[in-house]
Design a protein that fits this description.
mainly beta, seven-stranded antiparallel sheet
Length: about 220
C-alpha cells in the first residue's frame, strides 16, 4: 500500500513538472504600410534645332545652383530656399543647337510618403536609334524645416549613380517668398546632351526614351 501511494505521488509530480516548464501565448503586432512611391511627367524634355549631321550634339543645362542659366526657380521647384531664387531663368540650348521652336527643361514629379527618403536613379537612352540623350539635372530635397531646401545634382547616369533625397514633409515651409513645399512630393528638373546618332531628316520630330527610377 505504501508502495502504491509512492507510485501515484511520483506520477503526479511528473505531470506537474511537465506543465510548469511549458507556456503558450498568442501575440500580435501592429504594422503600418507606407505610401507607394511613383513618378509622373509634368513637362516633357524638349530640344529644338539639332543639326542634321551625324554626331552633332547640343546641351541644355538644368542648373542646380539657383543662379546659373537653366535653373527653373524655387517657385517652380516648390523649394523653400534661403537663396530666394524664386523666378529662375528660362531653358537655354547651347553647343550647336540652332533655330527656334519648343525648348523646355523636363519637369517630373515624385510622389510618396511625406518626409520619406527616396533614391533616384537616372539612365541614359540607348544609342541604337537616330538620336540619343544623356540626361542631367537636379532633384529637390527637403530639410524638415524652413528655407534651406536645395536642388540636389543628379548623380551621373553613365555611372549608374543613385541620388538620395528627402521628400517634403509636413514641417517643410518657405517663408522668404520662394517656393511652397508640397508634403510627400518633390520635383526633378532635367536637361542634358542630345546627339544625332545618324544623319537626320530636316523638319522631323524624333523621340528618345530614357529612364528615371525612384525607390525607397
Amino acid at each position: 500500500m505504501q508502495h502504491k501511494m509512492k507510485l501515484i505521488t511520483t506520477m503526479f509530480i511528473a505531470g506537474l513538472s511537465a506543465n510548469s516548464f511549458a507556456a503558450q501565448e498568442i501575440l500580435n503586432g501592429t504594422f503600418t504600410t507606407i505610401k507607394a512611391v511613383s513618378i509622373s511627367q509634368t513637362t516633357g524634355l524638349s530640344f529644338t534645332g539639332l543639326p542634321l549631321a551625324a554626331a552633332s550634339a547640343c546641351t541644355m543645362t538644368a542648373s542646380s545652383d539657383g543662379t546659373g542659366t537653366g535653373y527653373v526657380g524655387d517657385v517652380a521647384m516648390r523649394l523653400g530656399s534661403a537663396q530666394t531664387n524664386a523666378v529662375g531663368t528660362t531653358a537655354n540650348t547651347m553647343d550647336a543647337c540652332v533655330g527656334t521652336g519648343t525648348t523646355a527643361i523636363g519637369i517630373y514629379e515624385i510622389d510618396g510618403a511625406a518626409g520619406a527618403t527616396v533614391n533616384v536613379t537616372i539612365t541614359d537612352s540607348l544609342t541604337t536609334g537616330d538620336v540619343s540623350v544623356v540626361p542631367s539635372g537636379c532633384v529637390g530635397t527637403y530639410v524638415d524645416g524652413a528655407d534651406t531646401d536645395t536642388c540636389e545634382p543628379l548623380a551621373a547616369a553613365v555611372n549608374g549613380g543613385v541620388t538620395a533625397i528627402r521628400l517634403a514633409g509636413t514641417g517643410d515651409t518657405g517663408t522668404l517668398g520662394e517656393g511652397t513645399p508640397l508634403a510627400g512630393t518633390t520635383l526633378i528638373a532635367l536637361g542634358g546632351i542630345i546627339t544625332a546618332e545618324n544623319t537626320l531628316t530636316a523638319g522631323t520630330g524624333y523621340t528618345v526614351d530614357f529612364t528615371i527610377d525612384v525607390a525607397y
